Amino acid sequence: MRYSLALVLPVLLSVGCGSGSATSKDAGDTTGTGGSTATGTGGSTATGTGGSTTTGTGGSLPGQAGNPNGSCSAGIPSGGQPASVANPTVIGNGTAASCTFSALNAAVGKGGVITFNCGSDPLTIAITATMNLPTTKDTLIDGGNKITLDGGHAVQILNFDSANFQANETRLTLQHISLVNGKTTPTDMIPAAPQAACSQGYDDGQGGALFMRDGNLTVIDAIFSGNQAAQLGPDTGGGAIYVEGSKHGTLIVGSTFTNNSGANAGAVGSLTGELDIYNSLFENNTATGHDANGDDTTMKMCTVMNNGQYEVGSGGNGGAIYGDGNGFNIILCGDAVLNNTAGKNAFGGGLFFTSDDMSGTLSITDTTITGNTGGSWTNVTTGSVTNVGTAIGVNAKSITVTNSTLQGM
Question: What's the confidence (pLDDT) of residue 286?
Fold first, then answer.
């Protein structure tokens, strides 16, 4: 999850640093060629605060999710339709009081289909500890347009952590539900270095609401708001969601991401995994790191190793959406990406996508990307689209843009 643009933007030579192995958080180096345009502007930073958890009614209803002002004219793939909730484990017996965290946590640990019977009113369930998902059994959590899971600015809400990388067929589906105020507590601090340019912050703490490694994810009609990943670090982030090493990728349909933050990937981050987003809204998300990241191979700026390189910069890439790695594509169709912010001296206020092997493609259709802040560049090896405006930083094989509004164009 690394890009050395802060150092090499004038010549557009280096993208990515690190390895793409099953034990690495990051993807590898490549050299980009072809048409390119670039601009470099800063952004702002933000931090979050802790808090306590409460149980009660209220919260944003999942039925209000998605882009209110547009949709994908080609429709959504079949996998983006709401999944069957047959044969569920039902949380609750018809009252709000019966829908407890302990009952939900036990059900999540077993996997399978999970639904709720908590009465007629919307309900917020306080999540007081991270719920660990099984990695060998599919899980579907359906909130029925009534349930909000609230991390209380204290805990990550869901965690799926398989030891493999792009090997697992298991899928998590979240539909008709809200996940709010999730927060990671990073512990893997980057050691202090004598040079100010060396990377600072943490190497862990991804996924404020959901972290997923070596699993496959579908999100339908869901709201993610106020979630926080680690706020500083070159290779961490994903304010709401961070998925790494997914065999079949992430599919998001008709969902809303607002006011989430992380060092990189203010809302959603994907490392080496397909990222396809339909009819969704990303607004006011923030990448809180700064100075992007890269490998100072000359050791002129940093003489201390982190993640196997002389790493400089502390993140800030991808105010809303982030993708990095080999061999995957990003599709945006029917989306609105509005008023998101990359970090100071970092890139991609709306979208950051670096295909490290330059095999990935970017498709933008029926989408509006405006009001975002951060540096930008476009670098492709083929195709007629060589500039996608000032909200996007991208290295890709090719780009297609159809019926879309992109800031700076």
Answer: 98
- Tokens 């993610």 label which residue? 224
Contacts of 54 (CB under 8 A, 6+ apart): 124, 126, 150, 152
- How far is Cα 3 from Cα 27, in angstroms, rounded to an integer? 9
Give CA–CA dist 198/73, Å, rounded.
46
Task: Note down the domain range covering 266.
Answer: 5-406
Q: Three-class SS string for 126-190?
A: ECCCCEECCCCCCEEEEEEEEEEEECCCCCCCEEEECCCCCCCCCEEEEEEEEEECCECCCCCEC
For the beta sheet containing 210-213, the strands, ordered from the edge strand earlier in sequence to the opposite edge, are 36-39, 376-380, 392-396, 351-355, 321-325, 268-271, 241-244, 210-213, 158-161, 131-132
Position 62 scores a pLDDT of: 53
Bridge-based pairing of strands 261-262 and 250-253 is unpaired
Gap between the Cα atoms of 222 and 195, Å rounded: 43
Find, among 310, 166, 185, the residue nearest to 236 by Cα: 185
Provide the 8-state DSSP code for 88. Answer: P
* Beta strands in 16-162, from DSSP E residues, in sequence order: 30-31, 36-39, 89-91, 112-116, 123-126, 131-132, 139-150, 158-161
User: Coil, strand or helix: which one is 117?
Assistant: coil
Write the CA distances from 392 to 76, 144, 254, 320, 387, integer angstroms. Answer: 23, 35, 22, 10, 9
List average pLDDT for each run of 10 residues in the chain, which is 409 residues long: 36 34 34 42 36 38 83 97 98 98 98 98 98 98 98 98 97 98 98 95 98 98 98 98 98 98 98 98 98 95 94 98 97 98 98 98 98 98 98 98 98
Q: Which residues of 313-350 are buried (b: 16+ CB within 10 A; e: fewer)?
A: bbbbbbbbbbbbbbebbbbbbbbbbbbbbbbbbbbbbb
CB 166 within 8 A of CB 273: yes
- Nearest residue to 321 (alpha-carbon basis) of 383, 243, 386: 243
Residue 32 is predicted with a pLDDT of 36
Backbone φ and ψ for 62, nearest 5 degrees, come out as -55, -25
Number of domains the chain is built from? 1
Tell me what pLDDT residue 64 has: 83
Alpha-carbon distance 255 to 164, whole Å? 28
Query: What does the pLDDT read at residue 66?
Result: 98
> What pTM does this model have?
0.88
Amino acid identity of residue 201, one-letter, is G
* Strand, helix or coil for residue 402: strand
* C-alpha to C-alpha distance for 123 and 338, rounded to whole angstroms: 29
Nearest Cα residue to 267 out of 290, 243, 249: 243
